[in-house]
Amino acid sequence: MRMSNLFKIVINNIKRNKSNFFFVILLIMLNVTVIVGFSYYNSLISFWSSMTEKSYDFNIAYINSSKRLNEAKENPHVLDIFSFAEYNEFGVFSDLVTEALDGSARLIGGIPNIKKIVSGSDLTIGEDEIICPNNFYPDSNIYSGGFDKNKIVNLEKYIGEKIKIRYLDEYDIELKLAGVFDASSDFSYPDACYVNHSTLKKLNLQYQSKKAEKDGFLVFLDDIDNINDVFSNLDESSYVRTTQLDTEAGNNVLRVISIAGVILIVIFILFCYAISSRRVVKEAKNIGILKVCGYKDTEIKKIFYLENIILAIISYVLSFVISVILIKNISALFLQTDPILYNMNVHISLTILVFEILITLISLFLSTCLSLKTIDSLDLGEIIND
């Protein structure tokens, strides 16, 4: 059969079969689910990896016994050692309290060079200074759906000035805003500012001395995975990572994609099998004519294979366009209230596109191959008599 004749027959069949519309819709649903779902998942894992690799917050561990302090001293993996009273507290930024924001923020003890400063200067050791993120959002409801990126506070106009803070929401203090750091360069909470360890220690000795007496200490490592090289025979009950990677969101996405994908693939195979089988029955007379004209079963099957491939190509192109539109707006649609992921860049990788093509082709081949076995069993005598 000449290729031009083959295409004419295929195009004519596509136009005549109304069920092809549902075939295309189902295939688009399958493609979009896989492309958008896996693109989001891959982007999420990549985002977390890039944000946490060199993050100060993710490389701190609390060791619950001061007896192990000597093991940490002068170890090349340990960049800083400090007490519990020098690490984490909170306060209310009095000048930033509005109807939308209650001013609540974390005060995390740190050292110079842990953040990328974009305006002003870094912390000066021994000074009562503070540095804050360029996406600062001081509000206690930030992690319960209260985040709105349009209400982020620009602190650059306060650089060099003393910021009034109600420490522990009870004691009035003032800290000089030294600078603003880039919140996108590594992981940081939008409601977290950093002060010198000595400042927090001084405040806690003055306002909550019991915390300063707590046993144990914290270590800042070049990589949290090196903790077992620092401390020998360390079990999980001996230390706590102060900030841990929350992979549950990514795992939930992967589970939803997998379940939805499997369901759609099964439905697609069954639907494609039903459509192809129905086509063979409807086209039995035309198939019989082709057989009488001397065409082999393999040549006749090419018509059905090519028809499904053309429909698959149309579906894939439409799926790609829809996926690009969805992904372009995925942040605006789903991540607006997430204080960490709102600026995550979701992208489609070549691997995902190839993976989706393989899923489509395999599903299409299996369903079409099974349905076209009917052609082999068609009785030419019955077709001619009909």
| Structural category | alpha+beta
* Helical content (DSSP H or I, runs of 4+): 40-55%
Radius of gyration: 32 Å
Order of helices and strands: HHEHEEEEEEEEHHEHEHHHHHHH
Number of helices: 13
Average pLDDT number: 82
What is the fold's blueprint, element by element?
Elements (H helix, E strand, L loop, with lengths): L2 H14 L2 H34 L7 E4 L5 H4 L5 E5 L5 E6 L10 E7 L6 E4 L8 E5 L28 E6 L3 E11 L10 E5 H11 L1 H4 L4 E5 L5 H4 L8 E3 L6 H35 L1 H9 L4 H32 L1 H6 L14 H22 L1 H4 L3 H6 L1
Outline the structure in words.
Helices cover 48% and strands 16% of the residues. It contains 13 helices and 11 strands. It has helices at 3-16, 19-52, 69-72, 197-207, 209-212, 227-230, 248-282, 284-292, 297-328, 330-335, 350-371, 373-376, 380-385; strands spanning 60-63, 78-82, 88-93, 104-110, 117-120, 129-133, 162-167, 171-181, 192-196, 217-221, 239-241. The strands form 2 sheets. It has a 6-stranded mixed barrel. Strand 7 and strand 8 (171-181) form a beta hairpin. The radius of gyration is 32 Å and the shape is elongated. The relative contact order is 0.19. The mean pLDDT is 82.
